[in-house]
Every structure is written in C-alpha cells, then in structure tokens.
Design brief:
Elements: H1 67-120, H2 138-151, H3 157-177, H4 185-205, H5 211-227, H6 229-234, H7 236-250, H8 262-280, H9 286-297, H10 310-322, H11 325-336, H12 350-367, H13 374-377, H14 380-391, H15 411-419, H16 422-429, H17 434-438, H18 453-473, H19 478-487, H20 491-494, H21 504-514, H22 516-523, H23 528-532, H24 537-543, H25 551-579, H26 583-587, H27 597-601, H28 605-624, H29 626-629, H30 631-638, H31 647-655, E1 662-663, E2 666-667, H32 671-691, H33 711-738, H34 749-776, H35 778-785, H36 792-811, H37 816-824, H38 829-835, E3 837-841, H39 845-853, E4 865-869, H40 885-896, E5 906-908, E6 914-916, H41 920-930, H42 938-964, H43 974-981, H44 999-1005, H45 1007-1018, E7 1031-1040, E8 1043-1052, H46 1067-1081, H47 1084-1097, H48 1100-1103, H49 1108-1116, H50 1124-1129, E9 1132-1134, H51 1147-1158, H52 1161-1172, E10 1190-1193, E11 1203-1205, E12 1210-1213, H53 1219-1231
Parallel strand pairs: 3-4, 9-10, 10-12
Antiparallel strand pairs: 1-2, 5-6, 7-8, 11-12
Helix pairs in contact: 1-2, 2-3, 2-4, 3-5, 4-5, 4-7, 5-8, 7-8, 7-9, 8-9, 8-10, 9-11, 11-12, 11-14, 12-14, 12-16, 14-18, 18-21, 18-25, 19-25, 21-25, 22-28, 25-32, 28-32, 31-34, 33-34, 33-36, 40-42, 41-42, 42-47, 43-49, 44-45, 44-46, 51-53, 52-53
EC number: 2.3.2.26
Catalytic activity: S-ubiquitinyl-[E2 ubiquitin-conjugating enzyme]-L-cysteine + [acceptor protein]-L-lysine = [E2 ubiquitin-conjugating enzyme]-L-cysteine + N(6)-ubiquitinyl-[acceptor protein]-L-lysine
Region (Disordered): 1-30, 719-763
Length: 1239
C-alpha cells in the first residue's frame, strides 16, 4: 500500500485460512488452472441434445440408464464437476489476494503507527490539552499528519486518541510557528477534518463516551475550519451534519437549565464559534456554506424551541447576530431555483421545512430588532424563499383545519401541526403585518425604465407568488392581506417622499394583461382546458427516475404556473376592491374626477370589458369542460385497482396519501378554489352591469358554445341524472354512518379489513359519480354558477320544467284532480285530505295557515283545500278554482308582511322593499326576559324556535307561490334576494356561491349608514379623530305592555374590537366588517330559517339560475309595460261572453279592450291587480298565467259594479253598452278597495 514493497516475511500464511477455502495440495498458488480446455465454464445450463431417439424434455434431468444417452449424461456431469472445481479455485485465489492485501496494509499501518508513536513518545505523557507541547518545526508537524492519515482507523480507540493528541499539539504549533495554510496543508487538513467528523458522529451514537473527547475534537473542528475556510465551505453539508448531531446531543438538558453553568456555556460558545467560521470568512464557496447552514443546521429542533430557558435563547440569538441574513437569503433563493430542492433529505419532512422557515424569518426580524418588517419583507430573496417554503407546507398547519369542507387531513398536515410550537407560530404569523405586505411593491422597479420586459414580468411573478402564498396559507386573514396590498405603504413608511408608483391592483393587472395565459384565454375559451390541466405527470416520472422532461418543457410549465399566480393574485385583489367600491367610484374611472385611492385602483371600463371576456371564457371552461380538465386525476384514480381478495393490498390503498392538487402547474391549488374565485368575481361584475349597463346587450351570453335547439331537454335530463347521483350519495352516506372503526375482538381483523375496503369503495364511487356529473351535466353546472350565459326566458322555461318534473315525481303530474283521485284510492286517503285542508279566518290568515299547515313540511307541494270563513266563522262565497289556492297564498303573504303591533317579521327600507327584521329575535328575547323567562332555559329556547319556525313557514309559502306559478305582489330588497340566488351549494364549487356583503347592498339596507361609511372611506384627514373602534351599537326597539322600549347593545366586530381603533389603514376592513354585521350576522337566524323553508319547496340550485332582479320577476312578475294584445289573446270567456261560431267578440268585450288600451300603464296595472291580485304580467306572457285570465257576464244591470274572483283570475263584467260608463264603473271598482266576495 502507498508504494511500499512487502518482503516475503509479510506474505499470507495458509494455515490462517479456513480449510474449506484452501487450494488443493497439488495446485500452485497464484497460477491459472489449465485443465479442461475444451469446456467454456459458462454458468448457463446448456441445452441437452438427444441422440438416442427417445422423446425427452430438452432441459429435463438426466437419467441413469445405459447406452449412448448414459454416456452423454456422464459427460455432462463431469463437465459440471470440473466447472465447480474451477470456480472454487478462483474463489480461493480471490480470498487469498484480498487477505494478502489486508494483511499487508495492516503491517504497513502498524509500522507507521510505531514510527508515529516513536515521535510522539515524549509528548504522549502529557494528557491535558493546555500542556500539549507544540511541534518544533513545520516539517515535523506535516510528516506526522501525513503518517497519521495513512494508518488511522476511526473505529480504533487508540487511533482516535492519536487524532485527539495530534490536534491539540497542532493547535499549539500553529499558534507558535504561525504556519500558513499552503502547499500540502489544505488537502491534509481537509482529510483530517472529515476523519474527525466521522469520529464525532460515531461517538454521538455510542451509548457511553468520553465527554472530554467531544470538547477536544470540537476544538479541532473549529481549528481546521479556521485554517481551511474555503475547503470547509465546500464540504459544508458534512460539516454541519456533524455539528447538528453534536448540538442535538449537547442540548438534551438545555431546556431544563434555569441559568447557564460554566460547562454548558463553554460548550455553547465552542459550538457557536465552530458553526459560524465558514460563514464569516468570505471565500468562493461562502454561499455554499450558507446553503448548507440553512438546510442542515437551521432545521435542528433546538433552534426553533419555544422554551424560555437561557441557553436555547442565547444559542439562537448569538447565532442570529453572527450571520449575514442577506447572504443566507441569497443562498437559499439560489438553491430553491433548482428543481427538486425541497426533495433533499434534509428538507423532505414538513417539520424540517417549518423549522427552516421559522428560523429564517426570526433571523431577519432579529437583524432589524424586531421592527421595520418593510426593510426586508419586500426583498426579492426573502420573497422567493418564504413563498416557496409556504407553498410547500399544508395550508392548515398554523390555523388548523377548515370547517368549511369535510376533507380529511393528510399525514403531512397532521405531522406539521404536531411540529408547530409557539415560537414557530409567532414567526410565521409575523408575516401577516401591514408594513411588510403594504410595502411589498415598494422595492419593485415597476416605474424604472432600466429593466427589460422579461425582468419586469419575472419581478411581478415573484411578488404574485408571495402574495398568493400568504392568501393561501392565511385564509382567515385574507381580507386584511388584500386590504394591505390595496392600501400600500402605511403612514410611517409612506411619509418618505418617493416617486408615485402604480397601485398593487394596477401593477398586477398590467402584468396579467401581458401574460400569454391571459391573451390565449381571451381569444379562445377552448384553449383554457390545456392551460388549466395539472402539470404533474412528468413530475411523477422524474421523481421515479423513469423519464427526464426536456428543460424547455420544464421552463414552459414553470412560466405558465407563474403567470397563473399573477392572474390569481389580481383576481383576489380585484374581488376585494369591488366589495368596498360603490357604483359611483366604479364608473368614475372613465371620468375626469379628482384622484383618490379608490379611483386610482379602478380599471377603465374598456379594460373591464376585456377582463369580463377573459372571465367568461375561463369560467365557462371551468364548468363546461371540468371533466376534460380533471382527466388526469380520473386516470390516476382509475389506475388504483381494488384487490378484493387481498386485505393487505386494500389497507395499502386506504393509507395511500392523495397527490397534491395542482391547477395549471400551481401546486397546492385545487380547481374548486379557482372556480370560486372566478365565479365570485364575474358575478360581482355582472351585478354592476345589471344595475347600470356599461357592456353590450348580449355581452354575457355564451349561446354560441351550445346547441340551443335541444338545450332545455338536455338540461332536464341532466337534472334527473343529478337526482339519481344525490340519492346514491345519500345511500352511501347512510352506510358510512353505520361504519364503526373502533377496535374489535381478536380474530375479527379480516372483517375490519373488509369494512375498510367497502368504505374505500364507497369513497371511490362517490368521486366517480362526481366526475360523472361533471361530464354529463355541464349545462346544469353553468346554469347553477354562471346562469347569465343563457337567456333569461330560456332559464324561466327550464325552471318550469324542473317544477313539472318534481310534480310528476310527487303527484304523478300537474293536474290537481288526477292527484285527488289517486289519493282517494289510497287506504289513508281521508287522513291525507284532512292534512291538506284548512279553515282560514279573515285577518288571521297567516296564523291559521301556520297552525294547520306547518306540520306538512314538503307536503305543502301537494294541492291544498282552503275554506275561508268570516269573523262569524261562516264560510265565504267564492268559486273554488283549485281550492281557492291563489286567494289563500296572496292573503297569507299580505298578512305576513303587513306591519303589526307586535314584532314585525319583515320591515321595509327607504324604497319600501321588504327584508327580514334584523332585530326580531333580539326583540323577542327582551320581551321573554321581561316576562320572567330565564335566558337559555328550555321554555326560552322553545319560544325563540317558534319564532324562527314562522320565518321558515313564510319561506315555504313564497316557495309554494313559485312552485305553483302564482304571482304575488311582494317586493323584496335586492340584497335579500341575492341570498336566495347564492345559497345553491349543489354544484361542483359550493363555496363560491356564498353571499358576500358589499357596500352597495348596504345602501339598499340603510341609506344613512351607507353615506356615513362612504364619507369615512373617502375622508382625507385622520379618521382617528372620529374616535371609532371595531364595535357596533345595535338598537333594539320593542313593544312591551303597550309602551315602546329601546335599548342599545354594543357588539364587537372582531375579537377585542373595543380596543382596536379605526385608522386610515384599517378603515376598509372596518367598513367590510360593518357591512357583514348588518347584512349577514345580525339577520342570520331569521334569514337562515326563511331560506330553509324556501328550499323545502324550491331546490336552491334552481334559484341559483337567477340574479336578484330576475328572482323578483319570478315572484311578482315582470315590471315592463303590459302587453294588452297578449292578454287579449290568452283570455277565456264564460257565460254570454263565450265567442260563438262566427269568431266575433261580444260588444261589451270589445268595449272593455278598447277602454283598457286607452288607460295609462298605471291604470292598466291597477285593473290587472284588481283581477289577479298582482299588477305585473307573468314572465313568459299571459299564456302562462295560472289560472287563466277570464271574463264572464254579470247580468245587464247598468248600475252594477264589476267584481272579481281573484282566486281564479276572473272578472265578472256586467254587459255595459256605453264605453264611458264601462270605464267609469271599472275604475271605480278598481280604486274603491272592493275585495273578495263583492259580488
């Protein structure tokens, strides 16, 4: 070894070998056997050649017969035997050669040890490091080191002591002789450093070890790091892995120390100095040292402990003070640019990435004395590192699992939550601060002309990545994050005069417009399918080393993902801005108005048009082509086979973690999030356009993408498919509830495995049905989420078809008499008729209806039998056209919405539009308290529940009107109707349809409050002068014992809101919270109860096909001018007025139509209301009025007034002969207030 020639005395002695491995006595060692030259010695079994004529298998076993075959068999056996002997000989030679080499090396090492020991003999008697004598010359020290490196063995205890001894002497030698590290020293030192690191690693894992060994070898590592900083930095990963083991070993009792004793303090000092040596001396490999320091050393648990003990805090703070945080950020940012950086062994676990992120943030905060986050939070390296680490962590690791969905948490998320402590939580939560987020764009060069277009785009992508990571990771702080981005720098940092830059919304809008994703989807909606597909297939192949994607393809996927991040951040910000922007500010962008923050953030209407086109194309594709987008997911799930006969395989499948969701290459995002974001924003823009048109008439329609000829039947078929899927889901849900996964008795493991397999099968069936619904019901998905893509009249027809389909399922059809005949044939027919019958007393319509019909539940969909009685309990006269249903429904609604001396269930706004009384529940509670009921007692809760049942029943009544197609003259406030349309939740993305309170809705509720908040938002001074905080005062007025009483109650808008002042920076959040309180929180119980009743009668998904104005039209009819010709064509005549064979109308009828045409539109509506109880026409014309508009004669008395039966839309018109008299009598009856039973 090492060029040394061995003498014969050092050759291998055979008696040391096992007897079985010794060569034959007549074999010369080291020579090659020359026997059996005709055989190849191949290990492959040769094909047997049969020359005997017998039929045997070509590779069969040999027999023991005679003749030719036996000779061949014997030859084969001899050849095999000779090959075996040759293999044995070859193996013996190999063993001998290895043994001789080993023995030679051992002898050389022993000689070197003897020589080394001879030199060190004098100094070895001194054992303490303080007295170890230095070498007298540099050559002596180098020679001893080279000898040591040649023979040292890390598993040899004596050699370890030799390393320790040499290290102590060399430290003294360098101090005395001032040896420079040149020539052969760096390489020798590096080898010694690696050997010392290996010794330390083994000592750490040993059960018992000499504590002084740690100290001496640690001093040696420190010394070597100083001598060869460049080589140490290059070898930093191994270096820091050793230090991590030492820190982990030494810190086991740090958290228990109340103060630092001398031993621990000295150890901490040496560890800190050793860890920071490669970082302090700048070399060509310093960034490599910082990279290793971050990935390896910063992930050690002691650095992120939340202990308050002295030593852990001192260790962390001293380390934070010693490093250069900018170089650390640059090194990690450079590392994370490479694909698969987070798949390194040091960063594979969620806990490691959490600790790295927490320490990384802490070091930056420490460098700025935990103030001024804007000084570092906008730096591009900080942004890059934090955004990548945040995106690699489960979203619920800090804030916990969301309650909005029932998805189970992944194993990574559970482990991450277990690893989170107070220290890590504080560091990560510190990212959400106004200064840091508000100044995110402050360091960008958005207004500089020096950057190229590519650099500007790259800058926007990085900032968008960070902003989206914050929004994804802190969903509960989403409004605050959006607001701070919207506001920009706070007052302190904004006070520094700087050139005015684009607001965040305009900055990301400009970047979005320039992206290829935006341009492609703007031009063609079909192109969005490929852009939205998850880009994970190639990643899986790369991860398993099956295939390496071309770099060009990888770069293209990464660029697409970055562009999606920019677009999604813009959509998030613009959604927030629309929530706090009223219509005047929205439309002010196209006018020359004074500049303010809101107007600066508004987009020109021409650009809004481009944005809506993009959102239309994207939203349409998200729903209509959902199956195409998710095809990769379906293939993945389809590839998971079910092993019905292998319980272990089923268990593996059950425990398999789902792959990380991805949209357009953006990891961590699911398709429902994008659907919700796009749907919510496009709805808000559509509502703006509905209130005040600024887009072309047919801008929102997407009928070109449909075959409209068969659209309605196709949608009805999809609705039936949806019903079947919901029924199957309900059955699987029942089975899931019956599943019990608790430990069972011994021997029932197979049964448990079978049940787990069944649960897995149910989950897969449910996912398969969901994908099937997306594939077979795309039109239904569009109607439920973006209905304005389809014309309104088409949607009304679809709604009626849905109702007819439901009627057919429940009662066999829309015909009332047929249903009654079927019920009569049932054994319980009499009981059913009794349930569906009621006696309604005038002026008590709602209470009587509630008492008798509330127990029906959904049974109210069936025909009902109504008998009206007067105050004397006498039955009123009237034509029973369908059980006086129409008169009953209109009377109940009129009575329910009529003001009373008690608690009003609904109240009016300034425009006389109805909405649920927001204080009704609180008023009732105050009355109950004064009546002596204890709050939260069973009686108290039952009384409150009774009030909410009335709201629920009123919702059923309105639903019954919609179900039967009966119009009622009730006008609801637009913000209340919006809640009807946005409670669908039956589509693929239920969360996007949730109601969002806006400033415009607040205007419909309370004009004075809106004006006050608008002034607060636009106030140019310091809003703290108003003395507001995050509380609201609710005024509750109620009638008790004939006297009006008023109490005021303060409610916090957010936790500890009383101590949070409203400032210029948080006033938008205050306005948002105020709107949410008034429009959502305060009337929540009443609104929920009403909508629950409404949903019993009408599927919420049906209502989601309409916006608020369209729903009002469904309830009360169209507000457009009455079409008298359409009414005339669809009128039925009775009695004398029946049209004869000649086809001519009666003269009185002709006079009636002439008079009606000459009336004003207001007078026409009054006549229509007089006859039908509503002043509006049906949505699809009078041909759909139910019952049909009818006129019959009422005698020839010229003094008699016209009368009506509104229950059947019947006008009883005397046979007037004079046009003027007819008009006079008709208008007198209309405006005299004559009612039911006038005739």
């Amino acid at each position: 070894m090492g060029g040394t020639t061995l003498s014969n005395n050092h050759r291998l002695k055979f008696p040391d070998l096992p007897h079985a491995l010794a060569p034959p006595p007549d074999t010369q060692l080291g020579s090659t056997a020359t026997m059996f030259q005709t055989f190849s010695g191949s290990g492959r079994r040769p094909r047997q050649v049969n020359l005997s004529g017998r039929k045997t298998h070509a590779f069969g076993s040999t027999g023991s017969g005679a003749g030719t075959q036996a000779a061949l068999d014997r030859a084969q056996q001899e050849r095999v035997q000779r090959q075996r002997e040759r293999d044995t000989l070859k193996a013996a030679n190999t063993i001998q050669r290895v043994w001789r080499g080993h023995s030679s090396r051992q002898d050389v090492s022993n000689l070197l040890r003897q020589e080394w020991d001879a030199v060190e003999a004098a100094s070895r008697t001194q054992t303490r490091s303080e007295t170890a004598p230095p070498y007298q010359a540099e050559d002596e020290a180098l020679t001893q080191l080279q000898r040591l490196l040649r023979f040292v063995r890390t598993r040899n205890t004596d050699d370890v002591n030799r390393i320790r001894h040499y290290g102590l002497r060399q430290i003294e030698t360098v101090g005395m002789l001032s040896i420079t590290t040149t020539g052969p020293w760096p390489l020798a030192y590096l080898r010694l450093q690696r050997i010392a690191s290996t010794v330390l690693e083994r000592a750490v894992h040993a059960v018992t070890s000499d504590q002084s060994l740690y100290s001496d070898l640690l001093r040696l590592l420190h010394f070597l790091a100083i001598q060869i900083p460049a080589e140490t930095a290059k070898n930093a990963h191994h270096f820091y892995r050793t230090l991590v083991l030492l820190v982990s070993k030494a810190s086991t009792n740090w958290e228990e120390e109340s103060n630092d004793d001398g031993g621990n303090a000295e150890l901490v000092r040496i560890l800190l100095e050793t860890a920071t040596v490669p970082l302090k001396q700048v070399t060509g490999h310093t960034l490599n040292a910082y990279e290793a320091f971050g990935c390896v050393f910063m992930t050690t648990p002691i650095l992120s402990t939340s202990s308050t003990a002295v030593l852990p805090q001192k260790f962390r703070d001293t380390l934070a003070d010693a490093i250069n945080y900018k170089l650390l950020a640059n090194a990690l940012a450079s590392l994370f640019k490479h694909e698969g950086a987070l798949h390194r062994d040091d960063l594979k676990s969620v806990s490691s990435r959490l600790r790295l992120l927490g320490c990384f943030i802490y070091f930056h905060r420490f460098a700025h004395n935990f103030h001024s986050p804007e000084a570092y939070s906008a730096h591009k390296d900080f942004v890059a590192v934090v955004s990548l680490l945040l995106n690699s962590l489960p979203v619920n690791v800090i804030e916990g699992a969301s309650t909005e969905n029932g998805n189970s948490q992944s194993l990574d998320a559970i482990k991450g939550q277990e690893a989170v402590n107070d220290f890590l939580k504080d560091q990560i939560l510190s990212l959400v601060n106004q200064e840091g987020i508000g100044n995110l764009l402050s360091s960008s060069s958005q207004s500089a002309d020096s950057l190229s277009e590519e650099d500007r785009i790259e800058e926007a992508r990085q900032l968008a990545n960070y902003a989206l990571a914050l929004l994804r990771f802190f969903p509960r702080r989403g409004d605050e994050i959006r607001m701070w981005l919207y506001i920009g720098p706070s007052g302190a940092s904004a006070g520094k005069e700087s050139p005015r830059k684009l607001p965040a919304i305009r900055y990301f809008w400009e970047a979005s417009k320039r992206s290829s994703v935006f341009g492609t989807i703007l031009r063609d909606s079909r192109a969005a399918v490929d852009l939205l597909r998850p880009k994970t297939a190639s990643n899986d192949l790369v991860q398993h080393s099956f295939w390496q994607a071309p770099q060009q393809e990888t770069d293209r996927i990464a660029a697409t993902a970055d562009e999606w991040r920019v677009i999604l951040v813009f959509l998030e910000l613009y959604t927030f801005i629309l929530k706090v922007t009223d219509d005047e500010e929205f439309f002010s962008s196209s006018k020359n108005t004074p500049s303010n923050q809101t107007r600066d953030n508004a987009l020109p209407l021409a650009e809004v048009k481009d944005l809506t086109t993009f959102l239309k194309n994207l939203g349409f594709t998200l729903y209509f082509n959902a199956a195409d987008i998710n095809d990769s997911e379906e293939q993945e799930s389809g590839s998971i086979g079910l092993s019905f006969f292998n319980p272990k395989a089923a268990e593996v499948q059950t425990q398999k973690q789902p792959s990380e969701p991805s949209v357009g290459g953006v990891a961590g995002l699911n398709l429902d999030y994008v659907k919700g974001l796009v749907t919510g924003l496009i709805r808000m823009l559509y509502e703006r356009d509905s209130r005040r048109k600024f887009l072309p008439a047919d801008h929102w329609l997407m009928t070109s993408r449909f075959d409209m000829t068969g659209f309605i039947p196709a949608v009805v078929q999809e609705e039936e498919s949806r019903h079947k899927i919901e029924e199957e889901d309900a059955e699987d849900m029942d089975d899931e509830e019956e599943f019990d996964d608790t430990p069972q008795l011994i021997g029932t493991g197979r049964s448990q495995q079978q049940r787990r397999l069944e649960r897995l099968q149910r989950q897969q069936r449910k996912a398969s049905r969901r994908r099937y619904l997306q594939a077979v019901a795309p039109r239904l998905e569009i109607l439920q989420n973006m209905p304005f893509f389809i014309p309104f009249t088409t949607r009304v027809q679809i709604f009626r078809e849905f109702v007819n389909l439901d009627m057919t399922k429940r009662r066999g059809g829309a015909d009332v008499e047929s249903w009654r005949w079927r019920v009569m044939a049932r054994p319980d027919g009499a009981q059913q008729f009794e349930k569906h019958s009621a006696r309604i007393k005038r002026e008590h319509e709602f209470e009587d209806a509630y008492t008798q019909f509330y127990p029906l539940g959904q049974g109210l969909k069936e025909p009902i039998q109504i008998t009206f009685v007067d105050q004397f309990d006498q039955q009123e006269a009237g034509i029973d056209g369908g059980g006086v249903t129409k008169e009953f429904l209109t009377s109940v609604t009129n009575r329910a919405f009529m003001p009373s001396n008690h608690i009003d269930m609904f109240i009016e706004n300034d425009q006389h539009l109805l909405y649920p009384n927001p204080t009704a529940v609180e008023e009732h509670k105050e009355i109950l308290k004064r009546d002596g009921f204890r709050e939260n007692s069973p009686e108290f809760r039952a009384d409150i529940a009774e009030l909410l049942k009335r709201y629920e029943f009123l919702g059923r009544i309105i639903g019954k009107c919609l179900y039967e197609g009966i119009l009622v003259d009730v006008n609801f406030a637009p913000f209340f109707l919006r809640k009807w349309a946005l409670t669908g939740g039956q589509g693929a993305a239920p969360n996007e349809s949730g109601y969002r309170a806006t400033l415009n809705d607040l205007r419909d509720l309370d004009e004075a409050l809106y004006q006050g908040l608008h002034q607060l938002k636009t106030y140019t001074g310091n809003v703290e002068d108003f003395g507001l905080n995050f509380t609201v005062t609710d005024t509750i007025t109620f009638d008790y014992e004939g006297k009006k009483k008023t109490i005021a109650r303060d409610t916090e808008l957010k936790p500890d809101g009383a101590n949070i002042p409203v400032t210029n920076q948080n006033r938008l959040v205050y306005i948002s919270y105020m709107a949410r309180h008034r429009l959502q929180r305060q009337p929540f119980a009443q609104t929920t109860a009403f909508l629950r009743g409404l949903s019993m009668m009408i599927q919420p998904s049906w209502l989601s096909m309409f916006n608020q104005s369209e729903l009002q039209t469904l309830v009360a009819g169209t507000s457009s001018s009455l079409d008298i010709d359409d009414l005339r064509r669809n009128t039925l005549y009775g009695g004398t007025y029946v049209i004869g064979d000649d086809g001519l109308e009666h003269p009185t009828i002709q006079l009636f139509w002439k008079v009606l045409k000459d009336l004003s539109d207001g007078e026409r509506r009054a006549v229509l209301k007089f006859i039908t109880s509503t002043p509006r026409a049906p949505l699809l014309g009078f041909g759909t009025l139910n019952p049909r508009f009818s006129i019959r004669d009422a005698g020839s008395d010229q003094e008699r007034l016209p009368s009506t039966s509104t229950c059947v839309n019947l006008l009883k018109l005397p046979m007037y002969k004079d046009e003027g008299l007819l008009k006079e009598k008709l208008l007198y009856s209309v405006f005299s207030g004559a009612g039911f039973d006038l005739s």
